[in-house]
User: What shape does this take?
Amino acid sequence: MSSESTRAESGALGRALSFSLPPLVAAVIFFAVWEVLVAQLHVKPFLLPAPSAIAKVALAERKLLMAAMQVTAETALAGFGLSAIVGVLVAIVLASSRLVERALFPYALVLQTVPIVAIAPLLVLWFGVGARAVTASAFIVSVFPVITNALAGLRSVDPNLRDLFRLYGASRLARLFRLELPWATPSIATGLRVACGLAVIGAIVGEFVAGFAEDDQGLGIVVLTSYRQLRTDLLFAAVTGSALLGLAMFAGVTVLSHLVLRRWHASAK
Amino acid sequence: MLDAQVGTPAVTMRGVSRAFRPEGEAPVVALSAVDLTIDEGAFVALLGPSGCGKSTLLRLVAGLDRPDAGKIEAPALASQEIGFVFQDAHLLPWRTVEENVALPLQLRGVNSTAGDHTARVREALREVDLESAARRYPAELSGGMRMRASIARALVTRPRLLLMDEPFAALDEITRHRLDERLHELWREQGLTILFVTHTIFEATFLAQRALVMGRRPGRILRDVILDLPEKREPSLRASPAFMREAQQLLEGLEEASA
Assistant: This one.
């Protein structure tokens, strides 16, 4: 091995450290201060448990928490997947003509403005209690950013390239698949990054209202039951789990879009 | 060469007019009653100040726009033997150079096998000396290389009529000279008809057999100049007295047009 490649490796390691060290140090200080304050001020554990207590209960209840994370992950992912497909399809329809966009966009906006808590009971009436209603909630919350970002991307196609496709007599389908969708891919990726975090929120809110199915208890149910039992340490552990789930989905989407875009788009450089 | 070509002209325009009406502004007459005949196999430069309708004329010939009045005939358009090179390369950034060059063949759905496509793409890339960059992405190329890829894309369908809209305007002068020289060779080799829009007098003089000087408000053809220069254009031509003399003619026309 040449000395140059070793230097490059230590350089990469150094870069990784310089990126991850500051937030890690911040976290250690934050939790230490929290731990000390809770002990010194004798804060009641049901109001604010110490980080060590949360970690302890997370470890003790890891089976319950892991199972809950899996349940929530499944519905969040399903809702997110629906958002990706339906969102892009809706954007294609809206982009087909200004008239169609003007006629339909206000109704897409309704999805964004109606509070999900208000329609969640409706979802129970339509889909019954359980995974389907929760998935629907995750979908409704996360579809709007996909629609708007995909629409912006489809609308921004270089007019010269449209001319080029016209010059060679490209069919509507060729235009869509060889020009418009690839052109909109970076925008769609942005929409999906926003949507994946929202899907987790939508799934947990959905579980609050519609998640009481027998065996599959998601993180939202763990949050609700631990709250009712004043097991605040478990509640914190569940909240941490939902944050981790959102982060994992965000990381997944980011890696995926980087793989797709890295050869040609500035955002992936 | 002009006299040798008998038969239908490559482009005929009779009384062609086109006006644009931007919302809330006075209409702009881009072209007013233009008559024009371009012979098969000619290299014609369209020269003029910005806003004189050069690009509009080119888009009309390409069928990308319709005239308000008048008639345009371009047999190459009807038979889909037309190529267009835009002001910038306008490549698809997600495709490699060879995939970009193959695009017109795919869109046309040319009746041939994929292997046939590959051969034609390779040939087009060879014509612009870009074979070595076939697998690279546009973002990895220089401006001159991107422009050559764009020309290869226009040549891959073997057009009879090639329309070029200030293709080298964004390039540095040395790169532009080199591309002008290569383009002129390609024209001689392939017997194309080329309609080349530029605002550079020296470029028009170097490339064309005939230059049309256009004026604005309304856009129209002011001068029709046959350039009296050797058919084969060597780089040294640019420093010759004959070249200066012909360029002077175009300069006078352009000054009149810009007045």
Observations:
- The CA atoms of residues 197 and 247 of chain A lie 7 Å apart.
